[in-house]
Design brief:
It is elongated, with a radius of gyration of 44 Å. The protein starts with 6 loop residues before the first helix and ends with a helix. It is mostly helical. It has a domain of 112 residues. The longest helix has 74 residues. The chain contains 5 helices and no strands.
């Protein structure tokens, strides 16, 4: 059974950021756009000051910070919206940013949980060793089969070459002897004519 080291961060995310987004949505529905923007900004601020650091502190910050840093940057944009004169378009932008911030914190928690419950390094090394061992065995068997096949083919070629040489050897000798005799006769005939 896997353990969720981020269980408290999930609770805190829902009770702070999540509840402020819900409050912003209620204000939005009542056309209270300044109140909606203030609630969304409070959600972003609570996320940046409390939830992000809490998530990163649980462990695996090299994984979670990819998300928490993006949420922190979006909170900077959210904080620049003027809540006192907010119109519907401002509230829509604030809602979009707060919702994205919430999603990034949830993604950070999920990524951290995945890293926390990933197979240990030693078990992944064992798996790698088994796979490499199997590849080595298959490679060795393949080499042995290929070597045996090439040795058999080489032996067959050597037998064929010896057979061909031994069957053509007398013919070459006979041809060579005939050529030598013909050359002597021609030489003798040429010498007789010259004398």
């Amino acid at each position: 059974m896997s353990v969720d080291p981020y269980a408290q961060a999930r609770i805190d995310l829902n009770s702070t950021v999540g509840s402020q987004i819900a409050a912003g949505n209620v204000a939005w529905a009542a056309a209270n756009y300044p109140g909606a923007v203030q609630a969304y900004q409070l959600a972003g601020q609570q996320g940046a000051s409390t939830i992000g650091p809490e998530i990163d502190a649980v462990g695996w910050p090299q994984i979670t910070q990819n998300f928490t840093q993006q949420a922190w940057a979006l909170n900077g944009t959210l904080a620049t919206i003027d809540a006192t004169t907010a119109k519907q378009s401002d509230a829509l932008l604030a809602q979009t940013l707060a919702t994205k911030i919430d999603a990034l914190y949830r993604s950070a928690i999920n990524a951290g949980t995945g890293a926390a419950n990933a197979p240990s390094h030693s078990s992944s090394m064992l798996t790698t060793a088994l796979v490499l061992g199997a590849i080595g065995v298959l490679g060795g068997v393949t080499f042995a089969v290929m070597h045996a096949a090439s040795s058999k083919a080489a032996a067959s070629t050597a037998r064929t070459t010896r057979t061909t040489r031994s069957s053509t050897a007398p013919t070459r000798r006979a041809t060579s002897a005939r050529t030598t005799r013909s050359a002597r006769r021609l030489s003798q005939a040429t010498t007789r004519r010259a004398v």
